[in-house]
Amino acid sequence: MRYRRLTEEEFSAVEGEFVKFLASQGLDAAEWQKVKSDNPHKVEYLLDEFSTFFWDSTTSRIVYLEKVTKEDRWLFKFEESCAKVLRWQQSEVEAKPSISKGKKEFPEEARAREIFLLLEQGLVPCAESRHKELEQLFS
After folding, report:
1. What residue ranges in 37-139 does DSSP mark as E strands?
2. In angstroms, rounded to a whole number, what is the distance separating the alpha carbons of residues 11 and 48?
3. CB-CB contact of 75 with 60 (8 Å)
4. pLDDT tens digits, residue range 47-75?
5. Do residues 113 and 62 lie in contact, with contact meaning Cβ atoms separated by under 8 Å?
């Protein structure tokens, strides 16, 4: 599996989408209850399939990610086969922040996985306007 399965809390937050997914698999509420009681392997399969669908659709819409802590700020801009990275690091010792820029190349099919791994590390999506505003710190 490319991603982890959604947690119970995450499934609850996207219950409507899960119901639509089940319907696309030919399962209404009654049939889902029957599958849950009669076929635990199919339940596991469907939970994993929906999780993959969810992460694929979520990561495909993300272009900008950020993470802000007391010590540093990370900004990512994702294109099809690379991510541009900006890091602004404030040291308690030095008054002037350290600024780093980089670029990570990856195959197009790995884009979603790269974004997923950063989300798992605590980065959050941000709007293009927010990214541009923060990018000015690096000028």
Report:
1. 64-68, 72-78, 82-89, 98-105, 124-125
2. 11
3. no
4. 999 999 999 999 999 999 999 988 888 99
5. no
- Name the residue ranges covered by the structural domains of the chain: 8-60, 63-138
pLDDT digits (tens, 9 = 90+) for 82-117: 999 999 888 777 778 888 899 999 999 999 999 999
Residue 105 identity = E
pLDDT the model gives residue 41: 96
**What token pair was written down for 106?**
């990856």
Tokens of 6: 């959604």
Q: What is the pTM of this model?
A: 0.85
Name the token pair of 52.
């993959």
Find residue 77's DSSP bridge partners. Answer: 64, 84
CA–chain centroid gap for 56, Å, is: 9
Q: 96 burial class (0-12, 13-18, 19+ CB within 10 angstroms)?
A: exposed
DSSP E strand boundaries for the chain: 64-68, 72-78, 82-89, 98-105, 124-125
Whole-number Å distance between alpha carbons of 63 and 75: 11
